[in-house]
């Protein structure tokens, strides 16, 4: 219940002016979901945490978080996690100039 409540609070804070608070709530959601062993909620929290990190310009941290997200998505084998995992990985590959990797990830 706490983890899903944190998810709701996270979305209420979806304003640039509340970024630091949203980051804190997102990190708490990640810890709580991990603590209760809810891998789906943890994966969701990871994805939003990566968005926050990118918003703050913390690209390397976001890329590392997205790597963890992708590994979890592959374990869960759920389309709602898989498509953003591969789309994000393809976007980073394009951004890094790895064209072949980007095409492979996108297909």
Radius of gyration: 14 Å
β-strand amount: under 5%
Q: Care to count the β-strands?
A: 0
Output the structural class: mainly alpha
> Given the C-alpha coordinates, what overall shape results?
globular
Mean pLDDT: 89
Report on this structure.
The protein is mostly helical and 107 residues long. It has 6 helices and no strands. The chain has helices at 2-12, 19-35, 39-55, 59-76, 79-95, 99-106. Helix 1 runs antiparallel to helix 2 (19-35) and helix 2 packs antiparallel against helix 3. The longest helix is centred in the middle third of the chain and has 18 residues, at 59-76. It is globular. It starts with a helix and ends with a helix.
Structure summary:
The chain starts with a helix and ends with a helix. The chain is built from six helices and no strands.
Can you tag this structure with a few keywords?
82% helix; 107 residues; 0% strand
How are the SSEs placed, and which strands pair?
Layout: H1 2-12, H2 19-35, H3 39-55, H4 59-76, H5 79-95, H6 99-106
Helix pairs in contact: 1-2, 2-3, 3-4, 4-5, 5-6
């Amino acid at each position: 219940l706490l983890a899903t409540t944190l998810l709701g609070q996270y979305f209420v804070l979806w304003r640039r002016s509340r970024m630091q608070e949203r980051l804190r709530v997102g990190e708490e959601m990640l810890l709580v979901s991990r603590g209760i062993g809810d891998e789906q909620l943890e994966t969701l929290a990871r994805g939003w945490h990566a968005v926050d990190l990118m918003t703050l310009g913390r690209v390397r941290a976001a890329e590392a978080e997205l790597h963890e997200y992708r590994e979890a998505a592959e374990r869960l084998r759920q389309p709602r996690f898989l498509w953003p995992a591969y789309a994000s990985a393809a976007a980073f590959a394009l951004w890094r100039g790895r064209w072949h990797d980007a095409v492979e990830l996108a297909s």
